[in-house]
Backbone:
């Protein structure tokens, strides 16, 4: 309620980042990839932010992260781990224990865990929600692909069109779990390209209309946090390689209009 609808993007501290470019694109908070470069947020307490947390020892303000302490009042979201195998009982219990041990220390920050769309079974997901009581549910699923073509440059074949039906299925499923638990829903949006030879998968940059569909279909399924993956890495759809946010592509203008 206090923070409103969140439009975030995953920012790596390893590539150039300019807060004025980011804020002009109407993002509401910076989501740091594992490590926060808090001086880039401006004078403390700075621009609103969040980040991924790798494990229980990696919480904001802890040893090695004391530079974050002056910025904690603007900490909007914390993702505890990424794509943990919650189908495994021991791993799921570890996640539950993590949430229960830190919850009281972060009353004004949304604590959540993220999994890819079909990763966790319903029984295991329900058990995790009941015992861990996350503040939000989140999933990632990236629908914009091209054909993997061994004869094409970089194995990138023709774009695959059609409606993102499997992504809609993931949205429906996570939306229902979030509704049942009375907590908000978050989803990652595709703003990257990648060729994965090991499984013959090609993720391509979305078209302007596909980028809009990615956002507004998520809103239609009642998502409250939209998180671009990714912002300033060399794989970003929003900027040219080798990385950083100095040289935008045309898609950044589309993103700004969407936001």
Residues:
């Amino acid at each position: 309620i206090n923070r409103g609808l969140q439009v975030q993007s995953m920012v790596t501290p390893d590539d150039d980042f300019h807060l004025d470019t980011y804020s002009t694109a109407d993002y509401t908070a910076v989501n740091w990839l594992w490590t926060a470069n808090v001086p880039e947020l401006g004078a403390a307490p700075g621009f609103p932010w969040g980040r991924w947390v790798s494990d229980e020892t990696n919480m904001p303000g802890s040893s090695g992260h004391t530079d974050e302490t002056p910025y904690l009042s603007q900490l909007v979201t914390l993702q505890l781990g990424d794509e943990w195998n919650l189908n495994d009982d021991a791993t799921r219990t570890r996640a539950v224990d993590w949430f229960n041990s830190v919850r009281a220390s972060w009353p004004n920050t949304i604590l959540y865990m993220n999994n890819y769309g079909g990763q966790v079974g319903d029984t295991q997901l329900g058990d995790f929600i009941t015992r861990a009581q996350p503040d939000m549910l989140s999933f990632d699923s990236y629908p914009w692909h091209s054909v993997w073509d061994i004869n094409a440059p970089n194995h990138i074949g023709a774009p695959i069109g059609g409606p993102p039906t499997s992504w809609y299925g993931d949205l429906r499923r996570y939306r229902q779990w979030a509704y049942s638990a009375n907590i908000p829903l978050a989803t990652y949006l595709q703003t990257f390209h990648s060729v994965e030879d090991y499984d013959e998968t090609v993720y391509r940059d979305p078209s302007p209309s596909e980028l809009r569909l990615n956002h507004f279909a998520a809103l239609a399924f009642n998502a409250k946090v939209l998180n671009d993956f990714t912002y300033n890495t060399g794989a970003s759809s929003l900027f040219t390689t080798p990385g950083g946010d100095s040289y935008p592509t045309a898609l950044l203008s589309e993103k700004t209009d969407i936001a």
Remarks:
- The longest strand covers residues 75-82.
